[in-house]
Amino acid sequence: MTMMIPDTMPGKEECANSLRNVLDALYVLNGKWKLALILSLVQSSKRFNEIQNEMSGISPKVLAKELKDLELNEFIKRKVYPTTPATIVYEATEYSLTLKNVLRELTAWGGQHREKIRQSMRQKRYELR
């Protein structure tokens, strides 16, 4: 991951716009589960129980809320099939694919961060000896 440092400092208005954009993105994607749910559904469509089994630690109530939020923001769609009982399948929308680069970068950064913490913990154990 390379870091781009601008040649000049951004102006006050550009900085305010950047901050507003980041806050908007965080408002829509806030929480522990939303990006993980989008990533899961980009890979394949799933039923509620399949999602819950894949996301260990999420309660049915929280999962239902997160799915509703993602549907309201058009990241996923809910398809209801007229069976008895009704079959409901959740799938990613084209709009969710606009997060592809964000998800790729977060995945890479998460792996780097996990490795950094592991190395730091190994180093601390070594220093304690």
From TrEMBL:
One of its GO terms (molecular function) is DNA binding. The keyword Translocase does not apply. It holds the Pfam family HxlR. PROSITE patterns: HTH_HXLR. Keywords: DNA-binding, Transcription, Transcription regulation. SUPFAM superfamilies: Winged helix' DNA-binding domain (SSF46785). Residues 15-118 form the HTH hxlR-type domain. Signal peptide: none annotated. InterPro entries: HTH_HxlR (IPR002577), WH-like_DNA-bd_sf (IPR036388), WH_DNA-bd_sf (IPR036390). It comes from the Bacteria. This is Transcriptional regulator, HxlR family.
